[in-house]
Amino acid sequence: MSRWSHRHVLDLAAFSLADFTTVLELAQRFRSLPTSGARRLPALQGRLVTSLFFEPSTRTRSSFELAARRLSADVQSFSPASSSLSKGESLLDTARTYVAMGADVLVVRHACAGVPAAMARALDRSGERVAVLNGGDGLHSHPSQGLLDLLTLARWFEPTAPTPAALAGKRIVIVGDVLHSRVARSNLWALTACGADVVLCGPATLLPDGFAAFVQAPPPGQAHDPVECRGTIRIVRQLEEALPGADAVMTLRLQQERMHQHLLTSLDTYHRHYGISHQRLELCGKPVPVLHPGPVNRGVELSGALLDDPSCCLVEEQVRNGIPIRMALLYLLAAAEPDPFTAA
Ligand code: ASP
After folding, report:
1. CA distances (Å), 291 to each of 236, 253, 259, 300, 312, in order?
2. Comparing C-alpha atoms, which of 200, 125, 196 is closest to residue 156?
3. Which residue's alpha carbon is at the smallest distance from atom 4 of ligand 1?
4. Are 327 and 42 in contact (CB under 8 A)?
5. Cβ–Cβ under 8 Å, residues 171 and 234
6. Which residue, 55, 122, 302, 323, has fewest beta-carbon neighbours within 10 Å?
7. Which candidate, 166, 171, 142, places its Cα nearest to that of 153?
8. To test the ligand 1 pocket, which listed residue (183, 185, 250, 258) has its Cβ within 8 A of the most ligand atoms?
């Protein structure tokens, strides 16, 4: 395993190719552990992983908690509705309360971009050793989703050696509500770092032209880009132009809870122009996988028949891959041992 230098995981813009390789290698090893019998490794015994989710989640939170348990960590979770937030406690004071209880890792989700990073900075300033893992912040970033998507794609292209190199030169089409998607933003950093060429496809209201220059060097807030040579990003407005030659299609949920203007004519019109079905996929000219981070609006982003077809729709595979990816991240941030398998 190469050297890991991150104290927190906040944004994939900060990852080098070696970082992506480290996470994928470790996740692939965790993934090949037996799925029945004794499934736990002692790697995080005595550590405390706390999930602070200030925004709803079905997959991410339970996947992180399961990942922590599979590494024998103690797990604690916070729920905003029944917490002292409703009595006026600040986010940071809430975080400090869990740190005082001994949290080694805080997995933080919030509707506002930048909350996990602000928490990490404040806790660092006061000398706390806790690691902050971004579980999704506003429109900004969702690193564990970007990494599990990377593992899912790498495994599709190279089932026995799913490294970042499996993505080099691949054309990945990302379709839909890019504007409101932290998943798309994380994937743009991850995919281009691995040398994939990304085609973004959607209506101008959900995919402003500026996204073609999203991956800038250096990334915002960083002194330099940790990746020497990135893949490209191109914007195409019609699926008929985007799909021919694609190697994979990633669809995004229409995030209606974040749309404060009328950005869509109707869900039916969206499906007609941008919905992915078996028939649409034929435009790719070969069998390609389809991803979606979930939750899916069935019959809107994906046809029901495609969503139920595991031969090309990898939605459940993404959920499965989320667990070893999150084990890898928790391990890298919180374990003392250089190798999780030596202590097994
Ligand atoms: N579950 C993903 C997220 O939290 C995608 C979505 O909600 O559409 O960003």
Report:
1. 19, 11, 23, 14, 9
2. 196
3. 136
4. no
5. no
6. 122
7. 166
8. 183
Task: Kindly state the average pLDDT of the residues 298-305.
Answer: 96
- Give the residue from 137, 256, 249 showing the smallest Cα distance to 205: 256
pLDDT computed for residue 43 by the predictor? 95
C-alpha of residue 294 to centroid of ligand 1, in Å = 6
Encoded tokens for 203: 């209506």
123 CA distance to ligand 1 middle (Å): 27
Q: What domains can you pick out in the chain, each with its CATH number?
A: 12-141+319-334 (3.40.50.1370), 143-318 (3.40.50.1370)
* Per-residue pLDDT at 217: 82
Contact 104, 117 (CB under 8 A): no
Backbone dihedral angles phi then psi of residue 174, each to the nearest 5 degrees: -110, 120
Q: Write out pLDDT tens, residues 127-151.
A: 999 999 999 999 999 999 999 999 9
Q: Which residues contact 28 (CB under 8 A, 6 or more apart)?
A: 151, 155, 162, 324
SS3 label, residue 21: helix
What's the one-letter identity of residue 244? P
Residues 275, 253 contacting (CB under 8 angstroms): no
Burial zone of 213 (CB within 10 Å; 0-12 exposed, 13-18 middle, 19+ buried): exposed
Structure tokens at 245: 């030659």
Burial (Cβ within 10 Å: 0-12, 13-18, ≥19) of residue 151: buried
Contact 191, 13 (CB under 8 A): no
Cα–Cα separations (whole angstroms), residue 158 to 51, 152, 161, 193, 333? 33, 10, 5, 17, 27
